[in-house]
Amino acid sequence: MGSKASLHLREEEIEAIQQETGFQSNQIIRLFSRFTCLDKEQNGFLTRDDFMRIPELAINPLADRIVDAFFNGGEEHVNFRQFMRTLANFRPSSAKTAEDSPNSRTNKLKFVFSLYDYDSDGMISKKELLQILKLLVGANINQDQLSHIAERTLLESDTNNDRHISFEEFKTVMARTEIDTKMSVRFLD
Amino acid sequence: MKTNGVLVLGLTGILFLLSVAFLHSDSFQSNVTGEIVRHKRSSGVAASNESQHQTNASQSSNHNESNSSHGSSTPVHRYQVVTINWARVANPFIISIWIIFAGITKIAFHLIQKYVSRVPESCILICLGLVVGGIAYSIDKDHRIEQLLFNPDTFFLFILPPIVMEAGYFMPKESFFDNLGTILTYAIIGTIFNALCIGSSLFAVYKWGLMPGLEEYGSLEFLHCLLFGSIISAVDPVAVISVFEEIHVNTVLYICVFGESLLNDGVAVVLYKMFEGYIEIGQENIIGIDIIAAIASFFVVAFGGLFIGILFGYAGSFITKYTVHNRIVEPTFVFVVCYIAYLTAEIFHLSGIISIVFAAFTMSTYVEHNISTKSHTTVKYGMKMLANIAETIIFMLLGIAAVSDFWQYWNTGFVLWTLFFITLYRAIGVVGLTFVINYIRLDKINRVDQFVMAYGGLRGAIAFSLVSLTQPEHVPTIKTMICSCIVAILFTSFVQGSTIRPIVELLHVKTSAKHKKSMFEDVNLRMIDHVMTGVEDIIGHHGHHYWMQRLQKFNTEYLMRWFVRDPYLSRDHELLDTFHRINKRDAEDLVEEFERGNSSNEIASGTFANLLLPYEMRRSHSHASFNHLVRQQGVTNTCIDMHALEAQGRANGAGRTLEDADVHHLLQQNLYKPRAREVTRYRRGNIEDDGTRKRQEEEILIRRKINVRHRRHHKHKHNRHKTRSSSKSQMSGGSIKKHSTGSCSESTRLLQAPNFVVEQQQEMKTAPPEEDQGITFTAGKKPVQPRNGCSTARNPLGFMSSFDVLPEETLTDVAAEGVEETDTTRVDIESCAIDRELPWKRNPSNNDVVSDPHNTTSYEEPAPEISPESCSNLENVWPSNTNNNSSHPEDGGLHFILDKWESLEEDQI
């Protein structure tokens, strides 16, 4: 793995990523080796197929959405920088974490919100909610019930009665949840 | 309210006096009996009539009189109209009185709670106990009462087990496993550290001469101090439970303190026994082997207790697997097996607490699936009730026991130093260990939490029982130690216990999310779980989750099938039950509305009942009003009326919350389980088993395939989709070609795809396609084994069959999507029995096949004729597909299902 010169991580790249994401350099190196490991064609970027080749991920009901989150703007490839940028959302945060850093509470929530917001219009519509529910729920609940559940969910979260859930409303719903802990992964050094 | 409180208090007082009187008389009786026995032993004369011990009514009214009458009992007895035999019932009677007394005090406290809301219940109970103890002490000069009341054997054998059993049974599994490392660190290292430090510090202080006057009571050796240290260092589960249940701190904090207090018993018992043994051996005679033996005994005690607990837990689970015809014995097994686990561990001097905690813990995982709902409720309330009563009794007895003659051995220095050291080392222990733990923990335990953790280190009845068990021959200063122990208990319970709540509020400790989760939150949390699992997979790092998953896999693959009756059945059963409950309540609501006469079609059409109406009808045909309603409206209106919902919600707030709960439940049941976290997520009915897991994975995969197909269709529409679908079709290896109607080519290609797809198709084809996809899988996963009769409600397929008891016009009404649907529905009804036997025999769209609706059981399946042009590899797996090629080619088999799926996904993108 990573025998080609182009696949080696340069010092300044590490530093830049460190600056941007807050990862430590050995974490970056470790993740880079994972990145090259996933990159079967060894061309320095990952495609959707590369992600989907992870067997555990393939059986994740939200795999498409999760992978989508790595490919912002409908791109075909994701390079290491982008890869790290997305992963930075899942770094553990503390009280000192700046509001604009990727691992802040708001940004973690934004990540979840963006998974819902398929058409990226900043609102969760009933349709989008229903899509997620369909992905999440096994086939044991029928359409009508699911639709009902989506309706109900929308109703209880939609404070301004516009039939959509905005990010602010989303934040309010999740206000009492420990997002910081829930959405953190321990990255090995 | 106030008068009520006073009344209840008055009643309590009377009862209390009564019980004291009884106690007194009992102790007196036992006194007399004792004398008699002694007398009998010495002289052997005329004790036979005394053992019967009958006194007449007039005599019993006054104990002194009764006393004198015993002294001069005449040899000839006249026949008595009423005889009193108190001695025979004395003990159970007193116990019962005590339980009632305890219950009434609880009621009284809740009535006067506004005055004492700041004081925890345990403190008030101890106070009450102190009062009772004081009175008993003054009445009873022989101090038999406190021996009768608080005796370590009674405590360990009867009062403690229910509390820890309840604690184990209702232990929040998820957070327990999440924080297992932290808990064990505190429980083992923390307790050992505390014991050694407290012991040696006390000895050092003693040697420095800072405990003046202690020498009068006897010599204090180093081992004595260590023994005392091991007794006093352990945090008490009973005290912790009672205090932390009232302040709702966050889960992590709670489970850490709570788990520590439960598991440190193993350590405390070992240390206690070890030092007791060393004292017997004598300090100078201890050699290396003793120390090694002690360390070995730690593993034996802790892991032995664990082993016995788990063993009995599995045994109990196994038994309840076969209680289906004797539902009534189910709760008994749960209780008694746990108790036996405790007793067994005690036989071998292992940790009984660890044993019973894990027995209950194990049982709750499996038993919940086996026992009926009623038994479940019984177990739940039985546990809570027993634990509550035991807790109340413990605190009162603690108060009673605190009034005794050991106070004359009071030594201020010893007591104060003890208090100082337990506080100091608790703080040092928590802070130091947390410092280490925080390196590993993902969510760090912050300063405030550490403080609460240290402050919540309450001592309780276990320490007192252990210290009372210690023989004065071994430790001459034990009475002083008892004093000190009592003071430590009272101090931690009163000072720390009652100030912890204000402190928690003051420091803004994160309190537990006691709020009812909204549905959206619920969905979000589950979603986040999946996302996190996905991210972990991407970064390829498996830590905690990975091992949890391995454990889970082992559990589902090997253990579940042995200890759970029928994972498949119970899952569906649960689901149907939920449906049923929702429907029932909605039916009630509807009936109410009809009765009130304000029902409008609008409201009715918006209720959940309408959505689920078909199910309700399948389950029960007795709801005439439903049929009526359906006929009125023609079809089930599946679109939700917002206004109606809102109106409903406002009109009936309570009803709505209930409904919410059910929807929650429904979601809980059906949301895909994230791979890694699920082990901790057992809940009744939430059964994970091999099949479920597989099915879930297959479902997801097949959806993805369809999605890919779908994207390709739409790629000309959306630019965004284009990129995606192209990569997707690469991924699927080109196995899915263009969607072509009217042939089986599509399915053939899919069949060439990996194995799981084939399996999935096999499953899917057994499903009635005209159902919603929800039912598709439910029905499809039923095994092919024949079953007679489809009328039982327990049968997951049963609900379909009860269609045929409905009047036919209702059926027509029920059918939602027009005539065609009605036909297929009917076909479904008729063929469900066959379907169960031979799933592929049924041709969903070909009505001709099912000719005689009433002859379902004797219906002969036509041999699947395979059209020559059909692909050979379909022969075995999909005869029906080839079968109906002629009539409705695109409706049959996989194709239909794929279309169905696709249409379902249609609105998704």
UniProtKB/TrEMBL annotation, chain A:
Entry superkingdom: Eukaryota
Q: Does the keyword Cell inner membrane apply?
A: no
A Gene Ontology molecular function term for this protein is: calcium ion binding
Its predominant location is membrane
List the Pfam families hit by this protein, alphabetically: EF-hand_7
| Keyword Transmembrane on entry | no
Q: Which CDD domains match?
A: EFh
Which residues does the UniProt record annotate as the domain EF-hand?
A: 104-139, 145-180
Q: Which UniProt keywords apply?
A: Calcium, Cell membrane, Cytoplasm, Lipoprotein, Membrane, Metal-binding, Myristate, Nucleus, Phosphoprotein, Protein transport, Repeat, Transport
Gene3D superfamilies per record: EF-hand
Subcellular compartments: Cell membrane; Cytoplasm; Nucleus
Q: Name one GO cellular component term.
A: cytoplasm
A GO BP entry: protein transport
Q: Give the similarity note.
A: Belongs to the calcineurin regulatory subunit family. CHP subfamily.
**Protein name as it appears in the record:** Calcineurin B homologous protein 1-like
